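Sequence only, no structure available. Ideas?
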Amino acid sequence: MGKTIGICNQKGGTGKTTTAINFSSFLGLTGEKTLLVDMDPQGNASSGVGLDPQRKTSVYEVISGDAQVEEAIYPTDWPNLSLMPSDISLTGGEVELVFLKQREVLLRQSLEKIKDEYSYIIVDAPPSLGVLTVNVLSAADSLIIPVQCEYYALEGVSKLIQTIGLIKARLNQRLEIEGILLTMADFRTRLTLQVIEEVRNYFKKKAFSIIVPRNVKLAEAPSFGKPIHFYEPNCVGAKAYLELTNEVIGKTEKTNNFVKQRG
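Reply:
I predicted one. Tokens follow.
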């Protein structure tokens, strides 16, 4: 059975969707069959891998019961990577879900039907702690929490940790924190170094050793509908997400060799 990893932080602008796109892409590059699920109504993960979600069956139809999960899965141009897209209709859907039975576990129930078909399912959560994010927490085996290297880095993370504890107690006992990922680091500033120290002191071994630097190419790649490896494979951002993949799946030599072959 595959592993489901949610990419969550209710604070916007932390590199959450960038992480979801590039981490799932590198998983595919290692030969792991991977599904990226876009649970953000903005649909940025969908467009970021080059799929126009317009007129596509989306995750909204799946969790509302209007479509089977298989109908909302589309191939991408990238090796071993499929996508379940999202679009703006999910915004209204969030309101509708409040009135449905078992509304907190609708995504989990849908993904359980196809979980055996993938090595990894990566879910990009919206920047909120509403019912859509609760669905992500209920479906996930573990979470990657991107934290931006800025003054208010830990603001809201404590609330997310509290919510994770509640979900684990009531809806999903297997839920764990895969790791805290520091993003958008500018190593020239003292503030970045202070934030890194603060996060690592607070989260200890739960903080990934890799830190994603602030990188123009990472910001540009989604506008071309490409994961970073297929846009600028030699930039520091691409190397950071390759190292994140190595940390998570523990196949450093295999990953590096496979990526070189596919590059």
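The chain is about 40% helix and 15% strand.
Hope that gets you unstuck.
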